[in-house]
Model the fold of this input.
Amino acid sequence: MPFITKCCLFCLFFLCTFTSRAQLDFLQGQLVDSITGEPVVFATIRIKEKALGVISNQDGGFRLPLKLKDQGDSLIISSMGYEKRRISIHDLSQIGPNSIKLVPGVIELGEVQVTEARKRKRALSAKGIVRRAIKAIPNNFPRYPFSLIGYYRDYQFSEGKYINLNEAILEVFDMGFHKLDDLNTKVQIYDKNENLNFQRDTLSDNKYGDNERSMKIINNASLSDYGGNEFTILRVHDAIRNYNINSYDFVNRLETNLIKNHFFRKQEDTYTEEETLYTIRFTKLLTGYSAVGLLYISKKDFAIHKMKYSVYENSTAVFGKRREIIGNFESSTLVSRMRKENAGKRRLFFEITTEYQRGGDDKMYLNYISFHNDFWLIEPPEFDVNEMVLLRDCQCFEVRFNREVDALAAGNKKNYDWAFKDQKIKFKEVIVFEKEVRLFPDMDAKTFEKMANLLSDENENSGKPNKSFKTEIRNITDKENRYLLGENTYRQFQQYREFFVQRVNRRKEAPKEAESFMNKTSPVFEYQPVSKPPDFGDYWMNTPLKDRF
Done:
């Protein structure tokens, strides 16, 4: 057997063994709605005796360390609108995802509670409920130091696959809601990992803006990288924690702008655990945009349990003001195609979901936050013009392409719309070579020479492309008819940043060692200090179970 074949087989065996081993180290579960069979997303899975837990993924999946199986503990599974469920960890199978059904249900309350809730519902409008909830934030959320230990991840999602999945275990030291989060909160990294089991794409992993090989953009918007730190971006988008500073459009400063910017309406009550919640829907309509939000607010003390905010961009706004510049040519081919594909659609621009839960002292602590936005990765055309030159000796122009051209299309005079000083240039002959096309203007030698001299003078004096010389080439493909000239390739992605709390430590302050804290202005997954505490083994990365959800 050739040496190279042995190496390939060995690598394949090693990879399969490693993957299988990684899967065997965890128990896998998947939460589904007992009626619809749909996954239950962002449900809370707590280990009863350890005050630890995870949050289900976009496919309802989660995983637990295998070592918990024989410890005789149980899981408490809860999600808004579903009956709480308790199952024994020992009963979970080590083979494949364990399908766990959650039953939608209605909470049973005492007669007095029902009467009080009905009276309050009649007395308060949707806007009034939200106003009281915002006013109650200082009382319902901790105003003393605490820490959150949890699983952080950021990734992109495209064509049903996770891309560039990065994971970490972090401890967030919060000084309390009376302190500004950005200035006072500190973060320690327990562990971090660029997960190589999922596809990596270096182009989509670049920063937003124009790069050497591609253009990564959020259409008609901007997203600050806050010095390059992904977790900092995520924290800023918690409008409840940052209720007294600007967070994001169009919530802005929650305590002063939320009510002013939106229209509110009550919906059917829901519940979490044994607590009934107001459900408030709020909206904002703008030209080209629409925003929809949901607030879940306690009927007991107006504590905010959950906030979801989605901003949509109407299809008419997609690339509405953008024209791609391709070499010396302006082309709206990409714009037209994207408009056609998005016609009649309401595109999700960004979405933020934040959920809080009560701690042992009845204060509200973060359970999870998920922030995602879409972006476009626009890459250079596969078939393009390298350069155009004027050849005085043959009194013609030569267009040089980066691929062999289709002779029939390249030889069609109608595909060249050229003008000099607003006068259309007609061509008497077009000669096609493999990668070059020569265009012979229908003009005498004197007129051609005069035009050539003017073009040369303009170039030398301005150092810029000729403003008086306009060219457009269209409907030309390469020889194999695979690529249209000047057509950019583009891909749409969803960008996610998420933090899922596994443990809350009340009244815990940050350690004094400043060098152990994460640098908030540097990317999480570049150089950062990593410090593992003695109980590091209690925490784990809830890596997605599969590529598709």
